[in-house]
């Protein structure tokens, strides 16, 4: 499966209210916030920054306080417009111990821990049957990212044969919401770029 994704900084003030109202008009109801900590790793013999790949262990903690983990591998982006990537995401049993066991195994295999991205995320789903963007189901997330601010992500899953149609639908849906100038860098990339700029005095 492929993850087809667009990400946008949530615009300030009235512009943000207009986007959120447009989502509400389409049936989006954001759930309670959960905390996500994404621990990113680099490969022992190739640089994921150069190959445009990503490997992370995500720890999700909701209101019950129980951490749930999953490991995600993302392949290189396949187009120049969206963040479409092949994705593999096995889930772990609930509990901090399972996350610790996995991260320790990765380190012993030579993977190097690079950075942890922490955010508060609220998720909504939108199913559109009668729309210029067609009949698709979108996952919309509203993220408050430590060190970056607030972002909106729109995502859909696709098989290879439906990839073009899903990408076109996602772009059309974002346009319907008034969202422009998507950010193709990951949160990790944005944070690392910001850290590099601060080091360089930029």
Automatic annotation (TrEMBL):
Organism of provenance: Alienimonas chondri
One Pfam family matching this protein: CYTH
Superkingdom classification of source: Bacteria
EC number: 4.6.1.1
GO molecular function: adenylate cyclase activity
Protein name: Adenylate cyclase CyaB
Domain called CYTH: residue spans: 1-193
Coiled coil region boundaries: none
Alphabetically ordered keywords of this record: Lyase
Matches recorded under PANTHER family: CYTH DOMAIN-CONTAINING PROTEIN, SI:CH211-156B7.4
Enzyme's top EC category: lyase
């Amino acid at each position: 499966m492929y993850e087809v994704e667009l990400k946008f900084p949530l615009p300030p003030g009235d512009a943000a209210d207009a986007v959120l109202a447009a989502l509400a008009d389409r049936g989006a109801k954001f759930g309670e916030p959960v905390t996500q900590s994404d621990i990113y790793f680099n490969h022992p013999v190739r640089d994921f920054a150069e190959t445009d790949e990503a490997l992370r262990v995500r720890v999700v903690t909701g209101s019950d306080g129980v951490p749930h983990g999953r490991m995600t591998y993302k392949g290189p982006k396949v187009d120049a417009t969206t963040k479409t990537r092949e994705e593999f995401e096995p889930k772990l049993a609930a509990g901090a111990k399972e996350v610790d066991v996995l991260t320790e195994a990765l380190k012993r295999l030579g993977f190097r821990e690079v950075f942890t991205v922490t955010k508060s995320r609220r998720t909504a789903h939108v199913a559109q049957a009668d729309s210029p963007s067609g009949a698709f189901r979108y996952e919309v997330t509203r993220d408050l990212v430590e060190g970056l601010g607030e972002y909106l992500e729109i995502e859909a899953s696709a098989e290879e044969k439906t990839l073009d149609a899903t990408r076109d639908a996602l772009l059309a849906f974002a346009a319907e919401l008034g969202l422009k100038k998507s950010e193709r860098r990951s949160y990790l990339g944005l944070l690392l770029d910001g850290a590099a700029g601060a080091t360089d005095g930029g």
